[in-house]
Every structure is written in C-alpha cells, then in structure tokens.
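Supplementary Methods, section 5.1.

A reviewer requested that the exact input to the structure prediction be made available. We therefore reproduce it here, unchanged from the version used in the analyses.
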Amino acid sequence: GTTADRVYAARRGVFNPRLFGRLIRSYGRIARRLGFNRYRGDLLIGYPGHLDTIFLRLLLPRARIILDAFIGIDETLADRRISSARSPTRRAARVVDRLALRLADLVLVDTHAHADRFARDAGLDPARSVIVPVGAADPGLLPPPPLSPDLRVLYFGGFVPLHGVQTIVDAARLLRDDDHIHV
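The structure derived from this sequence is encoded token-by-token as follows.
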C-alpha cells in the first residue's frame, strides 16, 4: 500500500488481525513458490522488510537473506511520532528490529553510525553488516557540471523529519536574495 496505508496500519498498533492475516497468506504463497525449506538462493528484502525477514527465515531456513535495513522500524515510528517509546507498538517494533537483524545473513545499512547502533542496540554482528551509502557518487569522481549562470534546486522526497526538509527550507531562506539560485 501507500505510505499513508502503512502509517494507518502502524497507528492501529500490534493488534491488527486483518494485517497479520494478509501477511501470513502472503508469506505462505512465497514459501510455496520457492519450495519451503528446499530453497537455497538469495533473498534481497527491501526496507521495510524487518517483519518479512523473520517470517521468511522461518519458512525458508536455507535461503540466504539479505536485509536492506535502512533504519529500524522503531526509529521509523519515532520519526513519524507514532505512539510513545513505552507503548506496546513501539516495544513490538524493537523486538522485530532485533530479531530481523539477528536472523538476516547480511544487513545493508546506509552509514557507519547505523551499523554501530544496530550492533549496540540489536546485537547485529558487525561482520554481517555492509555499508551502502545513500545518494550520489563522490562529487570528485563526477565530470564537472556545465557552467550555467543559474542554479536550480529541486527537492524530491517526503516531508518527514528524517528527510531534513526544515534544513532545506532554512537554506533556501538564506539564499532567497541570490538571483542566480532558484529553489
């Protein structure tokens, strides 16, 4: 579903029988197609696949699971201000995070800081994490851009705190009098 659908489901909390019914049916279909415990291939599970990692590890124990963790589910709920840190939903999210990070054979993270935090808070073996930076290549490796009298800036993303929209707005405000920069 959409981000709004996922936020709605998260706000309903851990007691959402309809969601769990859909998930169980989906995992069963995947496991049947891949041959349950006979499947030995790689599974790349994208974010937010923490819960998927747990169920698929149980259904496909011989598969090599690679989880693109990006950030934890608990961190996502905190970022979107969904329930308090002590709520059953957030506690369940922390359990899901820990289990998924421990059950995956390889965990992709975006920064060394996230790898360190996952190791400290969730028991992720640092040898099983791979840092895959998000964003563009090192600017020093790119050809110089064509010279232009104007700079056009486009923001493409969501409006959650994690995306740093307030920083972008503050920077645009500082540059508002520069006729060569268009945000």
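Residues 115 and 159 are 25 Å apart (CA to CA). These observations are discussed further in the main text.
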